[in-house]
Specification:
Length: about 475
């Protein structure tokens, strides 16, 4: 059964017949390429070093899912900090909205781990083993697998395995990973399974899927229609200056021929396709803003180099905006650029206030399990009260509980005090003995005072339940 080819490419990584079009971009050295290298290698170093940095006796970042603790630069968040974590998430989302409204997809081209590792680690290794893009395409056309490609894949596996161990360190700490590496995988099968799984995913991504992650899997490009506006910074081709395209002479730039005032017969674009061959997602930026563009500025460096050779001004492809390309001034101050910072300031302030208001310990009054009270043989009522205490301090603390209840005749506690390590938690049961007529509509208000040996204390309202008493 034959399949009719599409009239044009649906995606830059697909041929008209639906087969995969592999992209091997040519490197265009230039000012943006150099700065992206500085940023990229800096981010890689930061990713590798963060699990080993110590802040206040804890890793700089530790996402301890087993114990349900998230540590960020000395501050530890637990499930009780759900509101704080929600504010933190909102802060990130609003920051993404603001940065995109101002600078377009600068994150994708400059800071995204997919782009950083692909462009600054894995593709350089590929060029080291396989040579320039033309040689890689020759290897694709050969039957069988070349030793150069096998060697490249071997290095990819080693790097992916190393990065997977660094990734695991963010969840179990670098010291734990170091001890696991020295031991047998059978001693920690879950951790070893995570490393194997992440290694496989990284190898699949960087050896095969590559730019498809940005084009197909990542939703960020599809959000451009709502996150960008005509004044957002994008990479664009100046069609008014570049069209109509014409070929340049070998030594001198093609002279500009004017048919009428304000009109040009030949533009500055010489149709060399340098911007296309250097694009990591394989698009032609001259067709306008496209979903696949990650804002890496490789096409800018490529075009500037050609313009320099032809002694023409740079900027035929440049960082600009749709408004500027249409001949209008770019407005930095506009509604979304005002609303996003205001919302970010409010959410950020709430986040900082909530973080600053956190106490040395968390104390909750828990719901009762089973019967809310028990009638004793002497006619009195026994009401259970449960308090949960969690030590947030960085050192061990000893906690005492005092229940202030004028209506109680006796309070029974199994322990006088509780010693908790940092991050430790305990459920402390109390039993309040009261006369049967000491309740109003089946309840009575009391107070629980929890204090520690460092001088910290807090008071919580407690409802003591019982039978219907004298109103």
């Amino acid at each position: 059964m034959s399949v009719a080819p599409a009239p044009e490419r649906v995606l830059s990584t697909l041929n008209p017949d639906g087969s995969r079009f592999k992209i091997y971009p040519r490197v265009s050295a230039g000012r943006f390429h150099r700065w992206r290298g500085v940023v990229g290698y800096g981010l890689i170093a930061l990713f590798v070093l963060l699990p080993y940095l110590d802040v206040g006796g804890k890793p700089a970042i530790l996402l301890d899912l087993l114990h349900r603790e998230f540590t960020f630069f000395g501050a530890t968040f637990r499930p009780a900090d759900g509101f704080i974590l929600m504010l933190f998430g909102l802060t990130i989302v609003l920051t993404v909205f603001l940065v995109t409204a101002l600078a377009g997809r600068v994150w994708c081209g400059w800071g995204c781990p997919q782009t950083v590792y692909l462009e600054w680690v894995f593709r350089p290794i590929e060029r080291l083993f396989e040579g320039p893009p033309g040689e890689s395409r020759k290897l694709d056309a050969r039957s069988g697998v070349s030793w150069r490609r096998l060697a490249k894949w071997g290095v990819y596996l080693v790097l992916a395995f190393a990065l997977a161990n660094v990734f695991l360190a963010y969840f179990v700490s670098a010291d734990t990973v170091a001890s696991w590496v020295r031991g047998s995988p059978a001693d920690h099968p879950v951790g070893f399974g995570v490393v194997v799984g992440v290694t496989g995913l990284m190898f699949f991504d960087f050896a095969y899927f590559r730019e498809q992650t940005c084009i197909i899997a990542c939703p960020y490009g599809r959000l451009q229609s709502v996150l960008l506006d005509p004044h957002s910074l994008i990479i664009g081709y100046d069609e008014r200056r570049g069209e109509p395209r014409g070929k340049a002479g070998k030594r001198k730039p093609l002279p500009v021929v004017r048919e009428a005032p304000g009109e040009r017969a030949v533009g500055d674009c010489v149709d060399c396709r340098a911007c296309v061959t250097t694009c990591p997602t394989g698009i032609d930026i001259r067709k306008g803003l496209q979903m696949e563009c990650v804002g890496c500025a490789q096409c800018i460096d490529a075009c500037d180099a050609i313009m320099d050779k032809l002694e023409r001004p740079r900027g035929l492809i440049r960082y600009t905006s749709k408004a500027e390309l249409a001949g209008k001034p770019r407005r930095v101050l506009r509604p979304r650029v005002v609303v996003y910072p205001l919302a970010l300031a409010v959410v950020g302030a709430l986040f900082l206030v909530q973080v600053g208001a956190r106490t040395q310990a968390d104390v909750w009054v828990l719901r009762q399990e089973g019967a809310p009270f028990t009638l004793l043989d002497d006619g009195s009522v026994s009401t259970p009260v449960r308090l949960k205490i969690e030590n947030r301090a960085r050192e061990p603390r000893t906690y005492r509980i005092e229940l202030r209840d004028p209506g109680a005749t006796r309070i029974i506690s199994p322990r006088a005090e509780y010693r908790l390590e940092p991050g430790g938690r305990v459920v402390a049961p109390l039993f309040v003995i009261s006369p049967r007529d000491g309740f109003t509509r089946g309840e009575r208000a009391a107070q629980a005072v929890v204090s520690d040996d460092a001088g910290w204390s807090t008071t919580l309202a407690v409802t003591v339940l019982g039978p219907e008493g004298t109103p």
